[in-house]
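Sequence, please.
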């Protein structure tokens, strides 16, 4: 299905190439250092052309998997998992590069739309409890990812 729905100029291909080259790991490490927060990698998998649940017209929840990227070594710690579509990614607890390899190489995922999220989770706060300004959010949490934004 990838060949039929995704042309070679989609950013996904460049993203996977750079991820396999280890560039996400170094960026994640920089984001963790600058923010002081854990970096999370989350993948949702939506079955292509899946009909809504009968009599509800509601889409089924996506399958998902989520890891925390460990500081320094780039190893992954599994935080949560739901459903079976992302089984090819399930064993990727070594490095981020293994996630990219599994996402690209698994024919089982050809009929799924994948949403990948990576970054830190911010919490709302007040000035009294040390919330960050917009500039601090950019500098600490978003700035390291600037080269990835297209």
């Amino acid at each position: 299905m990838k060949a039929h729905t995704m042309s070679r100029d989609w950013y996904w291909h460049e993203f996977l190439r750079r991820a396999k080259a280890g560039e996400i790991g170094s960026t994640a490490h920089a984001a963790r250092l600058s923010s002081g927060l854990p970096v999370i990698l989350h993948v949702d998998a939506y079955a292509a052309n899946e009909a809504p649940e009968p009599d509800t017209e509601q889409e089924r929840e996506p399958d998902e998997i989520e890891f925390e990227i460990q500081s320094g070594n780039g190893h992954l710690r599994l935080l949560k998992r739901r459903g079976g579509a992302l089984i090819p990614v399930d064993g990727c607890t070594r490095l981020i590069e293994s996630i990219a390899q599994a996402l690209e190489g698994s024919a089982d995922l050809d009929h799924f739309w994948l949403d990948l999220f990576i970054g830190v989770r911010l919490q709302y706060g007040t000035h009294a409890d040390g919330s960050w300004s917009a500039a601090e959010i950019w500098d600490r949490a978003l700035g390291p990812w600037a080269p990835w934004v297209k």
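The chain has a mean pLDDT of 80.
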